[in-house]
Amino acid sequence: MPYTSNELISGAFYAAGIVSREFETVSGDQISDGLIWLNNIITEKEVDKGMIPYESTYNFNAVEGQEAYPIPGLIQIDTLVFYLDEVRYAMKYEKRNAYFGSSRVENIKTLPFEWYFERGFGGGTLYIYFKPDRNYPLEIHGIFRLEKVTLFQDLSLTFDEFFITYLRYALADRICSEYNYTTPENVYRQLSKYESFINKKSRVLDLRLTKTSTLQKRGTFNYAFINLGHGWTVPS
Amino acid sequence: MSTNNSETVSVNVVGSSTFGRYPKISLEKTYNMFISDEWMVNYAGFQKVSDISDSEEGRALFHSVRGDFLLTVQSGSVYVLRSNLNPIFVGSIGTFTGEVYIDENLQRQICIVDGESAYIYNYDDNSFTRQALTFLGNDIIPNYVCYHNTFFLISSSPSSNNPQFWYAFEFDTASTIKLNTQLSLQTKPDSALAVKRLPGKGNNVLVIGSSVSEVWTQIGGTENYRRVQSFNIDSGCVSVSTIAANEEFICFLAQNESNAPSILVTDGASTKRISSDGIDYLLQTIKFPNQSTAFFFRQDGHLFYQLTFFNPKDNLSLIYDFTNGLFFHISNEKLNYHPARQIAYFNEKTYFVSIDDGSLYQMGTEFLTYNYNLDKNLKGEVIPRKRICKTIRKENSGRFRVGNFSFWIEQGVNDFFIVDPGNICDGLLITEDSLDYIVTEMGENILAEDGQCGESISIRPRVDMSFSKTGNQTFSNIVPRYLNQQAHFRNRLNWQRMGQANEFTIQIEFWGFQRFVVQNGILEVY
Q1: How large is the average pLDDT for residues B418-440?
Q2: Which of A52, B324, B456, B458 is 20 to 30 A from B200 (CA-CA)?
Q3: What does the pLDDT read at residue B419?
Q4: pTM of the predicted model, to two decimals?
Q5: B-side interface with A, Cβ within 8 Å?
Q6: Measured between beta carbons, which residues in chain A are less than 8 angstroms from residue B401?
Q7: What does each C-alpha distance from B223 to B182, B183, B216 come to in angstroms?
Q8: Which residue of A has its CA nearest to B465?
Q9: ipTM of predicted complex
Q10: All residues at 6 or more sequence positions from B454 whose CB lies less than 8 Å from its CB, including other chains
């Protein structure tokens, strides 16, 4: 059943006790304010990424010799792979000081096996190393920011019912704050319940242990490593 | 259910019409209800009891105590009604509209004054005679009549040659009266518009002009009446039809050359204004004060002064409850003026004639509707009962949210029934074998030429609530609460979640063919 953003905003004003459901209608100004505050709540999830309920997949092609790739709306990468022919190859995440601060050869173009991601305005930038020697197809699996909504948008096409309900209570709480009222106790209780549902539970993290041998010693780059294995090793 | 962390504010569901000069000040009004023992209850309904004539205007109703009958003027015709309330035509008068004044003397004469002429109806010989009243060869145009100490005291129409004169007439023959004394209004240059007995004040009468009123005492002899030297009222009446008297005082819509209209009460020794700022303003806006009427009406121990301005441009009826000292609005079923013009208490019942038709109605709180049918089994029209409560504001003009509003109301003690809403049609065409209706291509029923469809109504009693958050300029949607069936005595109505405001006025409307007994309410704000 369609559920529009206007209905959500009106419902939030009713729940906040600012507008009466039976006796009045939410005014145009209130709907307009409500939309701004609703989009505030939605975009805040870029910071509090635990409250984004969905993982997404993003595909793009590497560019030969290019290390940095701006990815719009990307908040967090959970996995990154590239494809060579019909084979998917895993890539290894490097920490910032290891990626940017360690010694490395800059003139080698081969299979990209390391990556690092940094948040930026409107999304983030993905760095890959080695610089690719071909336009390898890359696939990101991660969290992307939620899109802002517009008036009369059918939210049931983009959000599940539980998340719409959460947004309604969250907006009611925001409205009370904007109008300098205390949030009604029942609204606050429902909001807390939904927050605990959604926060890191709706999108379950993969917390399985990956063992890393502290005794293993990886060899330094050499001719054979680059020219025969093209620099790729199984990520630990 | 109460609202968490809320504070309660009392709402005066029980209250009167104490509205202010502007809606922002107060729009507090009560329609067709009054206060009894601090509960709000329904004001009188009425039931038609006699179709007197097909005239469009009842002009007067008089109870002859000695003759034991009612006398009424309908348009230009005069009728007598005895205990069976069957009208008997007794005569015609020369005018067809406007209020008519009637009184009776000890010689079985009833004097009728219509503002142009006086008539004597003698119920002994059943004669009805127009009187040729003159003073020093000049015609007297009578304006008002009142019996006092054997005399018919007749005042002058403002269109008379000497409107300052008033006259004492006495019995002449069975069908005529003759002039005894001519007197004149003295304190101010004014017309003597009406003379009225001062209730309980023996020989004293009140002579009412348009800007002054004087108390006169009957002393007999050739002088007959003498003005009381020490007292007069510096106001006259706007319209003689607003003059009414009960057993204690006279009440009328008063004015003088300096002041706008207000309602004045006098016992002949003192005066009192019974208006409020809002009422005074309302009375100042009256466009046609002459098209008015007023009477006293006692019901359930309360004494009401009922005042009506029936010109469509004014369209207003008020009652003042002398028992509680409060004003209320009253109306007909369409919230227009109340139709009662003059009332009479006869055979332990109160009757009135209507401004709008030629019928006689019985009036009382035992009637819960306005029934314009002689058939008492028909329910009649629903009386619109409405209450606009006092506006609720915080001292600091701050905003607040309204969580809940509730009040006490009597339920489950009255007849209760519902007719399912829907179309009821008479004259639908049926097929030859009478099994099916004939329908159009679109499946709609076809009516015979004389057939008709009417929409039945649901008469389930209910209370509607709406509110204003705009200083009484606009009101919200109406949200109903239906009342219980018989024997379901739950006695509280409530509405939840009414949003935020910094001023909040509740309007409640009571609908149903039943009585309403209502107590104050509370508002929960947070």
Answers
A1: 70
A2: B324
A3: 53
A4: 0.82
A5: 4-5, 399, 401-403, 466-467, 476-477, 479, 495, 497-500, 526
A6: 17-18, 181
A7: 9, 9, 12
A8: A23
A9: 0.72
A10: B423, B424, B425, B426
